[in-house]
Amino acid sequence: MVDAAHFTVDTPVFVLEQALWRLHLPPKAFSPAAKMPETAEAVSATLTTNRNCTIEITNVSGSFCLINPKVYMSSGFCHHPPQPTVRTTKTEVCSFTKDDNTATGSVGLLTYDLFHMQSRVCSERLVIMFSVPYDHNLYKNKLAVGVVEHSRACDKHLYNQLYDGKDLSSFTHSETHGCGLEYKATYVDLRATMSSIGKAIVKVELYDKMGR
């Protein structure tokens, strides 16, 4: 017989599942409620500055997960940090914002290593460049996505390359008007959109290569 008085809110889930198994109850009967993933729109609504960027990444790939995130900020700082791992079929959200009380925007890079789950090797790196300028009268939001070799650092040099739109063999780049970008790498495809407002939202989808 299982005595419920022996269990507390701190009791490990696997202990509860073993007890439920003895009672012939499904584990879901005592499992904690799953936390619903936050959307980019919900996270963006919590940011109090007028220049920020919220990035939502959806991993549709069945072969790759995203690990080892790195951030480089040319302007502003990371507010909600990127998730350490974006597993297959999962969506994760992070955000970046301007410095308070300064006439600056939210501008930088986010990279993830592409971890091939079958071979357990990281040979390439996913790159997202975002720019939400302070003065929208002079500048527009910019977005670039691409895949580079795993050895490329997430730094000022890589940021400048993407922002200036130079050497686009590894990237696709655009000033944003809500239209989509698509980049086809060797093993994966990227699709991305970015809104054109000061509280910008970026959505990126990662797919296994399609039709090639």
Q: Strand sequence of the main sheet, in spatial order?
A: 3-5-1-12-11-10
Alpha carbon gyration radius: 21 Å
Question: At the first level of CATH, what is the class of the largest domain?
Answer: Mainly Beta
* CATH homology-level superfamily of the largest domain: Cytolysin/lectin
Taken in chain order, the helices and strands follow as HHEEEEEEEEHEEEE
General description of the model:
Strand 11 (188-194) and strand 12 (199-208) form a beta hairpin. The protein starts with 12 loop residues before the first helix and ends with a strand. Residues 25-34 have low confidence and may be disordered. It has 212 residues and is mostly beta strands. Strands 3-5-1-12-11-10 form a 6-stranded mixed β-sheet. The chain has a 6-stranded antiparallel β-sheet with strand order 4-2-6-7-8-9, with helices on one face. 12% of the residues lie in helices and 43% in strands. It has helices at residues 13-22, 40-45, 156-164; strands at residues 52-59, 64-75, 77-80, 85-86, 91-97, 106-116, 121-132, 142-149, 171-175, 180-184, 188-194, 199-208. The protein is globular.
